[in-house]
């Protein structure tokens, strides 16, 4: 696909690439991921002040840049290239759009300006391992994924003091460092069962967030426990609107994730190609001649994934009504490309016993862990494709012979 980006969008990409390359090399990214916050807070503030990164897609009336999914995808591509840990996905791609879509005027004016300026961050807390299902990527977003009254979910009850939440969410991206939580909770019991979204301050009594040990440390997660925590209903009591907002947010997020994965795949491939050339220059070509054919196949896969990500991002950016434009399919293709590129990076980096891809902490393995971790969170790939096919009605009728 020959993507036609505006001069401003190209400038966002160029400026972000230069800044991230300068401030977030492999060692810096690894060190930032191991801080208590899980990312470089100084770099995040610089990205906010110089490039308005946290508020790229926040409406201008609430302090943002008024951009679209396209700008977020271009930012994601550059952040993915460096595997730069940041709250971009959790705060700007998942949580802020839900507040913008569903929040009351007061809620939007209270929270969006601080999120857009990077002064605060937010995280989306969903029960169990339901992220891909709730966002309509690997499931249709219906059912009792929010708990349905069973143990393990998040339950909401209302009384004279307002809404209270109890339960826990296991895979909350950047949940340990977020200032504000957007929590999905089940309420209504059997008679009026429904899932709604709530705003919860991370420092409120009864809220405990514990960082989890995960495969990909550049994508930190937390377990959030809610013990009779005070909450504020996001918007109004309208379960169908919540489901629609989650699905629209999910497809936009998939486009950003696809661009991010394509950027990571391209960087992993470039790194492997350079190492292969270095071996050839040093007289160790040998079996690495055959590697060039393998890398050529990966190159085609990566470029196809990049095109699919651009198509999804441009379609989302042009869809003022939030219509779904194929983010899940683009994400499936990009995850496969990242898996292929990172696998070759690991094999060819350490294949002769002297490469730097022979230990679990080396750069090649970091790309591999991002590929595996993202598929666990947002896939698997075959379910992304199955759900997209079901949504398109490909299996809706029998074919007459």
TrEMBL record:
Keywords: FAD, Flavoprotein, Oxidoreductase
Domain Acyl-CoA dehydrogenase/oxidase C-terminal: 255-392
UniProt keyword annotation of Oxidoreductase present: yes
Cofactor(s) demanded: FAD
Gene3D superfamilies noted in UniProt: Acyl-CoA dehydrogenase/oxidase, N-terminal domain, Butyryl-CoA Dehydrogenase, subunit A, domain 2, Butyryl-CoA Dehydrogenase, subunit A, domain 3
Keyword Lipoprotein attributed: no
Identification of the protein by name: Acyl-CoA dehydrogenase family protein
Naturally occurring in which organism (per UniProt): Streptomyces cavernicola
The organism's taxonomic lineage, starting at the top: Bacteria, Bacillati, Actinomycetota, Actinomycetes, Kitasatosporales
